[in-house]
Input
Amino acid sequence: MMINIDNKTIDSVLKYDKMLEALRQIFISKFNMPVRHHHFYNRADGSDNALILMPAWTDKYLGCKQVIVAPTNSNQNLPAIHALYTLFDSQTGVPLAIMDASKLTSVRTACTSALAASYLARKDAETLLVIGSGGVAKHLVQAHSVVRNYKKIYIWARNKEKAGELIEGLRNTGYNNVTLATDLQQGIESADVISSATLSKDPIIKGEWIKEGTHLDLIGSHTPYTREADDDAIKKSSIFVDSREGALHETGELAIPIKTGILDPNTIKANLVELCTEMHSGRQNQKEITVFKSAGLAIEDLAAALLVYESIAK
Output
């Protein structure tokens, strides 16, 4: 019998350390994941929304996330992303559960970035900069703090009020080392790990600001025409991705420099499966600048949905 899992239940189950391990385990398992269906359609105001369908399955479960990305929703005080997740028995097709996928998406996205950082960030990284104050950004500090012991954590966002609310919320949960970065350039220049989750259309991260040994985590830029980091940041970095199929073609972060000849797609070092299965050892030295570009994978959503479903269906 299909169950409807509410957000209160999802909140109680999706702990960052458990989600990180669930992701690691699913990346080393056998799974199937077609390229997601990505469709753009026009709003009445002339802007574009995106419809994304993301299926994935194992020998036991099949899941599909249905997502609407509406970047201009902030003008109406609405979240930019709305999503549902449906879980099935892959052998019989019987529906097992349906749940709001917005929280699933935010937590699995933050934890996927932290999983990549566990291989790519320096072991002695002490300073974390989070860029953004939206739905994903609020989970990045907790997720990244699972894999590294940060002494200083900074938040920078265009919306200083939202950044302040995020900082207050983090301090209320015990993150007393979180402060506001008032200058983005200074924040980037001082950070050991930079995790950016914005809907910026044009680069806000300049390569000339990034010091040796930095790990740059790029979560925003979900279309082939938008990007958070400039060409210089890409040129000076070793590039890692969640998947080559998605990141190279669906994100402007990589698609734009590939189109202009700045980036050779064959120079991508590894994807997450290759990192988790130790086919690639990740960071090579203390001076290397690493970039992880996340396009978002259906298998990550399945890992999150299964963590929730199996915890209450026992």
